[in-house]
Design brief:
alpha/beta, Rossmann fold, six-stranded antiparallel sheet
Length: 427
């Protein structure tokens, strides 16, 4: 059943449309006499097709179209107007209307277009099956795919910007997924890989596949993802890391009016990804001296890492770890940085488990270089957040740290394959 709403302040115009629609089966029509009435009806019930007059009292067609599209994006709105000028048509289409028809209505053209609209509406309701889908979860996805060809760090910045600045991909924990993918991609780039990130989606989910991840241990990927997103649905198979992200469904809205004072309070107290200035402003003054002490720890760590390179051993590595642990203990005092603490603690555990045989290998020079890069990242984070306060998002370092930790672990991995024999699907 296709539900149709006719919106027009003129009784004869509504009757004309009703008579034209009698040619179609399995439809149900309703009427509204102005834009405000149409909005109220759309708040209570979802209409597949809305015929919207442009010039009406109380609320005109353009205003009503904007609100109805906000309530239900899938409702198709067809503008009907005696005005045949380019400006009126453009304003209506910009408001969200799918089509613009002029009065008097050409019955033959009207029938053909309505037939097409109803066909589109019915196809939308059918379960899609795309046999060319590459995600390992389902074939029920749209017949379209986004592919990012990742050749260098600029490629993954484009990936980051596309998703975090797009309003068409609203998913649970979305920014966390993107940060993990960014971090892993950055590591793959640094190890000389060129690969693709493929994106498919359906009404309910988004599927993101990162290819050529076989140089990272599956257990490492599992630990990173499950710590940052405990309820993540993902698979690692044939060198591809695949994520299934659940879309956040728009709730059929009851429009609630919020006064200016309430809006002001909400805007001040809800900071999903605060800037450095916002974060420092709400950080306890008593903690700031401890944050300032991080610079001295960084200097000490740099000297100790160089000393370790001269005489690599478990003992000299433990001295490095003691200072790194002191650094981590300061970060633990801060709210919002659980991911950063986890990354450093995971690294500490890895460093303390290195054996003397590994520390005597020819890989030490590369290992020390990467460890100093990590220290540089930490110093940059401290300066950008707490000294210059220029970071637009205080979590900007999360992905870089994931990447650095992966690089350090991979240096000592002769065989990156894992032969646990499990199905490699984690929840």
């Amino acid at each position: 059943m296709t539900k149709i709403l006719i919106v027009d302040d003129n009784d004869n115009n509504r009757l004309t449309l009703e008579l034209l629609l009698e040619n179609f089966e399995n439809i149900e029509t309703s009427e509204a006499t102005n834009g405000k009435e149409a909005v109220e009806m759309c708040e209570k019930e979802k209409y597949d097709l809305v015929f919207m007059d442009l010039m009406m009292p109380v609320m005109n067609g353009i205003e009503a179209t904007i609100i109805i599209k906000d309530i239900s994006k899938s409702s198709m709105i067809i503008a009907l107007s005696a005005l045949d000028d380019k400006e009126s048509k453009q304003r209506m289409l910009l408001a969200g209307a799918e089509d613009y028809l002029t009065k008097p209505i050409d019955s033959e053209m009207f029938n053909q277009r309505v037939k097409n609209y109803i066909n589109i509406i019915e196809l939308r309701k059918e379960k899609r099956l795309n046999n060319d889908a590459i995600n390992p979860f389902t074939k029920s996805v749209y017949d379209r795919k986004i592919i990012f060809y990742v050749k260098n760090e600029n490629s993954i910045v484009q990936f980051w910007d596309f998703f975090l600045q797009s309003n068409q991909f609203a998913c649970e924990d979305f920014s966390d997924y993107i940060r993990i993918i960014y971090g892993i991609s950055r590591w793959l780039i640094k190890t000389g890989k060129q690969f693709t990130i493929d994106v498919e989606h359906s009404d309910d989910n988004i599927y993101i596949m990162v290819n050529k991840t076989d140089s990272i241990k599956k257990g490492t990927i599992h630990n990173i993802v499950t710590h940052h997103i405990p309820n993540a649905v993902f698979m690692v198979n044939d060198g591809t890391l695949s994520f299934k992200l659940k879309k956040i469904k728009e709730v059929e809205k009851e429009v609630t009016k919020i006064d200016d004072e309430t809006k002001s309070i909400l805007s001040k107290t809800h900071l999903d990804n605060p800037t450095a200035q916002q974060y420092v402003a709400q950080t306890a003054i008593s903690i700031m001296p401890k944050i300032e002490s991080l610079e001295k720890i960084e200097d000490s760590l740099g000297e100790l890492i160089i000393s370790f390179e001269r005489e690599p051993s478990k003992e000299s590595m433990e001295i490095v770890c003691v200072q790194l642990d002191a650094y981590c203990s300061v970060i633990e005092l801060l709210t919002e940085f659980d991911h950063l603490v986890f990354a450093v603690k995971t690294l500490l555990e890895f460093l303390r488990n290195l054996e003397n045989e590994q520390l005597k290998s020819d890989k030490i020079k590369n290992f020390v270089s990467q460890l100093l890069n990590l220290l540089s990242d930490l110093a940059s984070w401290r300066e950008m957040v707490f000294v210059k306060q220029e970071a637009i998002d205080i979590h900007y370092l999360d992905a870089s740290l994931l990447s650095s930790c992966l690089q350090l672990e991979a240096i000592f991995e002769e065989n990156t394959e894992v032969d646990e024999g499990d199905d490699l699907e984690f929840f």
